[in-house]
Amino acid sequence: MATVALHPNNSQESIHRGTIVGVMIFGAFVAILNQTLLNVAIPHLMTAFNVTADTVQWLSTAYMLTNGITIPITAFLIGTFTTRGLFLTSLTFFTLGSFICSIAPTFTIMLIGRIVQAAGAGIMMPLMMTVILNIYPPDIRGKAMGTVGIAMFFAPAVGPTLSGWMIEHYSWRLLFWVVIPIAILDMILAAALLKNVTERTKPKFDAWGFVTSTIGFGSLLYGFSEAGSKGWQSGVVLATIVVGLIFIALFAIHELTAKNPMLNLRVFKYGMFTLAAAVSSVVNMAMFGGALLVPIYIQNIRGYTPLESGLLLLPGAILMGIMSPISGALLDRYGIRPLAVIGLLITSVTTWQFAHLNMYTNYSHVMLLYTMRMFGMSFIAMTIMTSGLNHLPRHLNSHGTASANTVRMVAASLGTAFLITVMSNRSNYHIAQYGNTMTLSNAVPAQFLQDTAQSLAALLGQPLSVGYAAAVQILSGLTQAHATVNGIDDAFVVATALAVVALVLSFFLRKRVVLREPGPTRQPVVIVDEGPRTPKLLPKSTVK
């Protein structure tokens, strides 16, 4: 059984914990809120800047790429700067980026603003997770991480609905103006209340690690993001993914052999951390990809407005925010395995139900399914990775959070691209199948076409040829819609398979059992791996 070093649970830390975490959650909430606000505004930005869908998508792609470049270097930044200084810097970048976006006269300026925003936002989450790992002992970290989940899930809950309302009544620029005063307020609170709780180790800057990680993760994430629209056979997609994999391999080799690595990949030698990262990655693939398919079905197929789409997602996101601290408390009490099994069972069943959507599925039924799916996800979204991080010694906290966030980001990007590709390919397949059926030699569609053409010609007061052309267009649209729904169903089948894989892996997750010596101080804290037998308190001499 392995032991790890823990800092004492002293009164000084207890006094400042709530304040420290509260200030940092406030900043994370603003960053996530802004991202979800922007998603609904994409069509309006296309009109405002007169750009295509492929071009405007760079506002999300550039944001993701910048995050992918920033997150791996956060361990170096956390070891170099104070907690307060680094958090204030990240908030400053985010606020400056928001201001640039709010006044952007051209798309290029808007894109620059998004990159500046992402540079700040990419630091916030790993820093916040590292701080929580440093100031909370493992036996109560779950509840603390669960509180962070409120910001992560409540922001997406209110974002789409709030964005739809603001765009409908005001300008899209308000989406950026509204977050600036909130970010400035948090900067004031951070300057006054935030304590320096991370250790400044002053590591040397790893230039080769930075270059290889930037090219590697940047290329890989770009390839995944373009695969959904250009297809996996695209030369650009294949080239960037191959380049990304090569440089990530070089990065990994260098970091494992370097004396002072920028990102210490030795965190993956801890088996339960690695397993938790794997389960969390598969969950992210299913969650993010699946979450994108529902709005496509609701808006593109069923014709509901973005506001109605946001309202459909609202109960599930709110439920996740409510359940997050509860799930964290359950993690502290019962360990990860029962939570993961229950959560992934619910997720698997509800995802499978999504694989049976059709052109007439009731709006309220889709809302109920999505809400139940998010209920299942609420047991695992924050808890699995928290349980993995609990297995790391304290000096690897910053490297663990950076590694975990990097892996999860890559998995989410891959999952989104993969499921969208499955949807597109299977939709094309079903269109071809319908094409073989919808021929004039088939009496049913031929009669439908004839009847519809005659009805339209009479209604429009036009010749039968005009009615026939309109009927063909209607039939083509119906065929396209049915094929797309079938493609979405097939993508959810794949998402179900991913959830089942995560479910199987979750049975191998183990918790850490926290034991204390009797007495008024109840120290030192000793942590042992859960095993088939009841764990025994280790001698004090074994605690490092």
Concise structural overview:
The chain has 544 residues and is mainly alpha-helical. The protein has helices at residues 11-49, 53-56, 58-70, 74-80, 83-103, 107-135, 138-169, 174-177, 179-193, 207-230, 235-257, 271-301, 306-334, 336-354, 363-378, 383-389, 397-437, 443-460, 464-506; strands spanning 512-516, 525-529.
Count of DSSP E strands? 2
- What is the CA-CA span between the terminal residues? 13 Å
CATH fold naming of the largest domain: Growth Hormone, Chain: A
Major sheet size, sense and barrel closure: 2 strands, antiparallel
**Count of helical regions:** 19
Shape: globular
Evaluate the radius of gyration.
Answer: 25 Å
Describe this structure in words.
Helix 10 runs parallel beside helix 17, helix 12 (271-301) runs antiparallel to helix 16 (383-389) and helix 12 (271-301) packs parallel to helix 17 (397-437). The protein has a two-stranded antiparallel sheet. The protein has helices at residues 11-49, 53-56, 58-70, 74-80, 83-103, 107-135, 138-169, 174-177, 179-193, 207-230, 235-257, 271-301, 306-334, 336-354, 363-378, 383-389, 397-437, 443-460, 464-506; strands at 512-516, 525-529. It has 544 residues and is mainly alpha-helical. 76% of the residues lie in helices and 2% in strands. The protein has four domains: 12-203, Growth Hormone, Chain: A; 271-438 and 488-510, MFS general substrate transporter like domains (Growth Hormone, Chain: A, Up-down Bundle), CATH 1.20.1250; 439-482; 511-544, no CATH class. The chain is globular and about 80 Å long. It is built from 19 helices and two strands.
